[in-house]
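[AMINO ACID CHAIN]
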Amino acid sequence: MINLLPPDIKQNLVYARRNTEVRRWAIIFIISIAGVWIIVLGGLFYMQRTIHSYTDQRSKNQSVLNAQHMDQTQKQVSEISSSLELAVKVLSREVLFSNLIKQIGAVIPPNASLTNLSITQTQGGIDLTAVATDYNTATQVQVNLQDPANKIFDKADILSISCSGTNSANPRYPCSVSIRAQFVKNNPFLFINTGGKGGS
């Protein structure tokens, strides 16, 4: 076909086609940008809802835990941990109780009897309770335990002495004495001691 249109009209048609093409690509670009923004905003909205939902769930879980006395449970766990720690420390000292009790029993004076022995501190200390027929015998328990010749304790301090007389639950031993004693450095009744020598 022969195009008999004037050159000006031909050029206008070419530019018109180009403008149409540019307009089409511009519309596609704008639509694409709008789509990206919609995706971004949708993602932000979803994240915000997720965070909000997680926060609500966490608050509900915390309320449930509080209702189940979580604080009390944690306190009990802490107490158990402390007891285990004390047991580990006591075991690390490896006190030879059988030999220790025999030796303490040997130094307890006549008319007195050992009733209790407990480790309340792990740095070489021990608490003892004994009963006696009278006040003088009760104090003699402390003197005998602290005697260096016995090689048990470096010092022994009386915490309390009480004599209940005829109203005592045990009339034969009306007096009770509590003593806190400190092991000597090279105590033969410890596998591990500060002097570095083991006992037998």
Notes: The domain at 91-183 is CATH 3.30.1360.100 (Gyrase A; domain 2). The two ends are 124 Å apart (CA to CA).
